[in-house]
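Assess this:
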Amino acid sequence: MTLAFSFWDAIWTVIVIFAWVVLFWMIITVLADVFRRHDIGGGRKAVWCIFVIFLPLIGVLSYLIVNSQGIAERNMRGIQQQQAQMDAYVRSVASTTGPADQIARAKELLDSGAISQAEYEQIKQKALAA
């Protein structure tokens, strides 16, 4: 008795595996969105979770139909928050003071008497070397 595994059997196996992967990906995406929401209470979250876990295909599709606009808005808001955090981080790390700013600040300190002429020259040399 030989097991014949034709090309079309292999294609069908790939399609079935792909469908399972997509289904699990959708389940995880929906459950993540349910728990990320702040506009519904715990009871409604529990009902959605039970619905998605026990009737996965129907639960996921119904959640996508009912909440598709909200999912997009929450994803966009999350992306905007991440971008704002990244921009704030870059601004905090990036040095916006160039040599001219350092020399001008040193000149102000020299004029106010906080530093001596020798210290001013030293700051000026460091700024120009950088």
User: Anything to note?
Assistant: Residues 7-94 form one domain. The chain has two domains: 7-94, 96-130. The chain has five helices and no strands.
